[in-house]
């Protein structure tokens, strides 16, 4: 069995040892006759634009959870699986928990300036509602970590399917949910249905003092509306890990806005040590005719 690896140049050195260890029975290569490959391991930045010649390929396994850069490729007719990896989920839960605690504890309210600031005692976690947009793999992992601290959790998903420990609503209830969202964590994929979902009107529904944490995708939020809202203190602060253009251009107003924290798309990495065995298991399933896990729904785009 022959597996084609297609990702940005630097990824090969990082991934090849872990993938070879996880797939000792398969031949892993970065190039070769497309018709000779049985599967593709894919991440953005690679050299495959046309999937048509890969006639034998039974599975394209993405190393990324977000698949917006490949799902719309009209030449891709082979099954596409996204990455669901315990390391990725833990990384995202830790990122969201860290920034949520910064918001919750008011960590920005103190400076080493000689002023003895009293009176700003934060509520305990059980009195601080946290809202998560997106109740998928990463939303659920984040909810589990925040729930362990004691935050009451509300979630939004497309379907509204129940999640233990979270009051989940379908997206139709978004407006009402935003009005109660003191800390809003956004973990939605980039699809036609989620683009600009947080527009000026919806941002204005947030309660005073609300924080937005967005490690999902940058297309979710209307940038100009967010900046205008931040200027008026609603939301009070935005922690942004993902952007419409990445890297975020040096002259983008997010860099200089005092109520914005920019992180450079580092919320959750797919780590070879945990993700290579996941990819290997799925490749073996595909190549032995078993149902593939974490298949992307092409119509929905995630
Ligand atoms: P997932 O398991 O596919 O979950 C997606 C969730 O979004 C589901 O709960 C889904 O609802 C919901 N959803 C989809 N469209 C919606 C809509 N229009 N309105 C409301 N809810 C909607 O994805 P995941 O693994 O949790 O990953 C989420 C996203 O995180 C990825 O797509 C990627 O963009 C981003 N990500 C970022 C980083 C980073 O480092 N910044 C790393 C990894 C991933 P249903 O449950 O009803 O289907």
Give the strand order, joined by hyphens, for the main sheet.
8-7-6-9-10-11-12
Any low-confidence stretches, pLDDT <50, length ≥5?
none
Question: What hetero molecules are in the model?
Answer: NADP nicotinamide-adenine-dinucleotide phosphate
Q: Quick one: overall form?
A: elongated
Category from helices, strands and their pairing: alpha/beta
Total number of distinct structural domains: 2
Pfam family, one: 2-Hacid_dh_C
InterPro entries: D-isomer_DH_CS, D-isomer_DH_NAD-bd, NAD(P)-bd_dom_sf
Keywords: NAD, Oxidoreductase, Pyruvate
Domain D-isomer specific 2-hydroxyacid dehydrogenase NAD-binding: 102-267
Task: Describe this protein with a few key phrases.
302 residues, alpha/beta, Rossmann fold, 5-stranded parallel sheet, 27% helix, binds NADP nicotinamide-adenine-dinucleotide phosphate
Lay out the secondary structure.
Layout: E1 2-6, H1 11-22, E2 27-29, E3 39-42, E4 59-62, E5 80-81, H2 86-105, E6 130-133, H3 137-149, E7 153-157, E8 167-170, H4 174-178, E9 183-186, H5 200-203, E10 211-214, H6 223-231, E11 237-240, H7 253-256, E12 260-262, H8 272-287
Parallel strand pairs: 1-2, 1-3, 3-4, 4-5, 6-7, 6-9, 7-8, 9-10, 10-11, 11-12
Helix pairs in contact: 1-8, 2-3
The structure holds NADP nicotinamide-adenine-dinucleotide phosphate.
NADP nicotinamide-adenine-dinucleotide phosphate binds next to helix 2, helix 3 and strand 7.
Organism: Paracoccus liaowanqingii
Pfam families: 2-Hacid_dh_C (PF02826)
Keywords: NAD, Oxidoreductase, Pyruvate
């Amino acid at each position: 069995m022959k597996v084609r690896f297609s990702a940005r140049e630097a990824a090969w050195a990082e991934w090849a040892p872990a993938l070879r260890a996880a797939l000792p029975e398969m031949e892993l290569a970065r190039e070769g006759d497309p018709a000779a490959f049985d599967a593709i391991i894919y991440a953005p930045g690679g050299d495959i634009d046309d999937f048509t010649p890969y006639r034998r390929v039974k599975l394209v396994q993405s190393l990324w959870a977000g698949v917006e850069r490949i799902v719309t490729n009209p030449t891709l007719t082979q099954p596409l699986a996204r990455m669901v990896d315990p390391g990725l989920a833990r990384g995202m839960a830790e990122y969201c928990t860290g920034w949520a605690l910064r918001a919750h504890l008011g960590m920005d309210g103190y400076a080493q300036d000689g002023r003895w600031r009293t009176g700003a005692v934060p509520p305990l976690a059980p009195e601080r509602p946290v809202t998560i947009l997106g109740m998928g793999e990463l939303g659920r992992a984040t909810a589990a970590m925040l729930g362990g601290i004691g935050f009451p959790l509300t979630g939004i998903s497309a379907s509204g399917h129940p999640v233990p420990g979270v009051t989940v609503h379908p997206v139709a209830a978004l407006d009402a949910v935003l009005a109660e969202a003191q800390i809003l964590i956004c973990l939605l994929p980039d699809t036609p249905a989620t683009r600009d979902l947080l527009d000026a009107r919806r941002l204005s529904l947030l309660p005073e003092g609300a924080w937005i944490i967005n490690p999902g995708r940058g297309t979710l939020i209307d940038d100009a509306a967010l900046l205008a809202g931040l200027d008026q203190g609603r939301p009070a602060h935005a922690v942004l890990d993902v952007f419409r253009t990445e890297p975020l251009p040096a002259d983008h107003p997010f860099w200089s806005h005092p109520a914005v924290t920019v992180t450079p798309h580092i919320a959750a990495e797919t780590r070879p040590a945990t993700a290579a065995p996941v990819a290997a298991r799925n490749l073996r399933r595909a190549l032995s005719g078993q149902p593939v896990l974490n298949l992307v729904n092409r119509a929905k785009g995630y």
